[in-house]
């Protein structure tokens, strides 16, 4: 192999490593442009709290809203701990999509709500998920294992879009 060819291979390898590093450190700009706002809360006669929320997609791509068994968005009840609680069984049949600039209004029923909580809804950027795995077709086999770790971490950071509502504080009930 000539000196010129070796230089070209080294340059291409360095370029691939630079692009991989960019992919890993590039900030998640989607999460800041997706908004989950409270439209209102009301208590029904049987004590169930009904929370109306509006989910808005301010990104340029269509996002998949993870759905429940009934085909509605699957919401997570977050009380500030490490793990939230699914309010309904999550299925994600890929049927609920939010186009760029679109909004989705939904009412969530919460039985026995905690005194302080917020709602979250998981979203997926399916186009970015497909793109992330297609990149491996162009990476040489010896580098793919190392690159796989970086891209998996980057995609996990970039694709976990969990917009959250404001905190909802319930006033104590007087008997």
Notes on the structure:
With 175 residues, this protein is α+β, with helices and mostly antiparallel strands. It has helices spanning 3-25, 126-134, 141-159, and strands at residues 34-43, 49-57, 63-65, 76-78, 85-86, 97-98, 103-110, 116-120, 123-124, 168-169. The strands form three sheets. It has a four-stranded antiparallel β-sheet with strand order 5-4-8-10, with no helix packed on it. A three-stranded antiparallel β-sheet has the order 1-2-7, with no helix packed on it. Strands 6-3-9 form a three-stranded antiparallel β-sheet, with no helix packed on it. Strand 4 and strand 5 form a beta hairpin. Helix 1 (3-25) packs parallel to helix 3. The longest helix has 23 residues, at 3-25. The protein is elongated and about 85 Å long. The mean pLDDT is 79.
Shape: elongated
Order of helices and strands: HEEEEEEEEEHHE
Largest sheet: 4 strands, antiparallel
Round the mean pLDDT to the nearest integer and report it: 79
Structural domain count: 1
Uncertain segments are none
| Number of helices, where a helix is a run of at least 4 consecutive DSSP H or I residues | 3
**Measured on Cα atoms, how large is the radius of gyration?**
22 Å
SS strand fraction: 25-35%
N-to-C CA distance = 87 Å
State the secondary-structure class: alpha+beta
Strand runs, count: 10
Measured as a percent range, the helix fraction is 25-40%
Q: How do the strands line up in the largest sheet?
A: 5-4-8-10
Topology:
Blueprint: H1 3-25, E1 34-43, E2 49-57, E3 63-65, E4 76-78, E5 85-86, E6 97-98, E7 103-110, E8 116-120, E9 123-124, H2 126-134, H3 141-159, E10 168-169
Antiparallel strand pairs: 1-2, 2-7, 3-6, 3-9, 4-5, 4-8, 8-10
